[in-house]
Amino acid sequence: MEYKNRKARRNYQIFKSLEVGIVLTGNEIKSIRTGKLNFKDSYAIIENEEVWLFNLHISPYDKGSYQDYSPDRKRKLLLKKNEISRLGRKVTEKGFTLIPIRLYINENGFAKIELGLAKGKKIYEKRDKIRERDIQKEMKKVN
């Protein structure tokens, strides 16, 4: 199972990506397996040498009752200390942002997030990309 953040590549230029684990409750993983997940405006922040993911909306599991959770709560991401310090330096010095690119469940049944080190695109960069795509479509029609 794989869920992609479609707006990530449209709104950001991604320089590097890495696979990280995420801390979830039992009902959250069940809800992810049913596909009730939304990446809208999600991002990660480094606080107190820990990485936290904000605004990842996981809808409550319909059949779950005893372990309710807030759908938009912040979730801890699992990285090694040296990776956190490396990412922290890049975020503070060079103005990068940490955004989730995709969430998937690996062969062992663990939920993993592909976290991207990205910079936001300017409006004119988005327009140029759209213009290039339109030119490519016209070239294919001609040939």
Summarize the structure.
With 143 residues, the chain is of the alpha+beta class. The chain has helices at residues 6-11, 26-33, 81-94, 123-142, and strands spanning 2-4, 12-22, 37-38, 43-47, 50-54, 57-58, 75-78, 97-105, 111-120.
List low-pLDDT spans: none
- Rg estimate, integer Å: 18 Å
So what's the CATH class? Answer: Mainly Beta
Q: Supply the number of helical segments.
A: 4
The ordered string of helix (H) and strand (E) elements is EHEHEEEEEHEEH
Total individual domains: 1
Main sheet makeup:
7 strands, antiparallel
Tell me which oligomeric state these chains represent: single chain
Shape: globular
Average pLDDT over all residues: 87
Percent range for β-strand residues: 35-45%
Task: Give the tags.
143 residues, alpha+beta, Small Protein B, Chain: A, seven-stranded antiparallel β-sheet, two-stranded antiparallel sheet, 4 helices
What does this structure look like?
This protein has 143 residues and is of the alpha+beta class. It has a single domain, classed as Small protein B (Small Protein B, Chain: A, Beta Barrel), CATH 2.40.280.10. Helix content is 34%, strand content 36%. It is built from 4 helices and 9 strands; from the N terminus they run βαβαβββββαββα. The chain has helices at 6-11, 26-33, 81-94, 123-142; strands spanning 2-4, 12-22, 37-38, 43-47, 50-54, 57-58, 75-78, 97-105, 111-120. The strands form 2 sheets. Strands 1-8-9-2-7-5-4 form a 7-stranded antiparallel beta sheet. The longest helix has 20 residues, at 123-142. The chain is globular. The N and C termini lie far apart (38 Å). 20% of the residues are buried. The mean pLDDT is 87.
